[in-house]
Amino acid sequence: MSNVLEYKGYHTKVQYDADSNSLHGKIEGIKDFVNFETENIADVENEFHEAVDDYLALCEEIGKSPDKEFRGTFNVRINPALHRELALEADKRELSMNQLVEKAIDCYLHNKTSPASTIVYVKENETKSSAGVLPLNINPADFFSPKSTRWSI
């Protein structure tokens, strides 16, 4: 069972408000605030669709480009030492850091194997010289424990 709905590339998480005995949500991942509410569970999806359609119509009416949920950019905060390693590895592979991070995320999410790519893991209280290497055909999510401290490709 999921409380996430998708329509025309927009998503919402439906939530229940016990005080008002209603279900509500807002379009996630955009700067504009677009929400909906209903007391009838059967109307939730339709109310979300109407909110998206109304938002798109309003944007067209006022000549504004509607916000897109996923623009392909996001900020990631990482340890400076890992940032340095990423920059050096990207230089070695003649890639930008963005390209290397995109490749790493793609491999992680789609369980892809690349002959030249490996995942390096370092467990707590181990040095890099005692770290192990996993081929990418192993799902890192199945391997890593909370004691694993980093991975890189």
Order of helices and strands: EEEEEHHHEEHE
Taken from the alpha-carbon principal axes, the silhouette is: elongated
Number of strands: 8
Mean pLDDT: 79
Structure write-up:
The chain is an alpha+beta fold and 153 residues long. It folds into two domains: 59 residues, no CATH class; 73 residues, no CATH class. Helices cover 33% and strands 23% of the residues. It has four helices and eight strands, in the order βββββαααββαβ. The longest helix is centred in the middle third of the chain and has 19 residues. The C terminus is likely disordered.
List strands and helices in order, with pairings.
Blueprint: E1 4-7, E2 10-13, E3 15-17, E4 22-26, E5 35-38, H1 44-62, H2 80-92, H3 97-110, E6 118-123, E7 132-135, H4 140-143, E8 148-152
Antiparallel strand pairs: 1-2, 3-4, 4-5, 6-7, 6-8
Helix pairs in contact: 2-3
Concise overview:
The protein has 153 residues and is an alpha+beta fold. It contains 4 helices and 8 strands, in the order βββββαααββαβ. The chain folds into 2 domains: 4-62, no CATH class; 80-152, no CATH class.
Search tags:
153 residues, alpha+beta, 23% strand
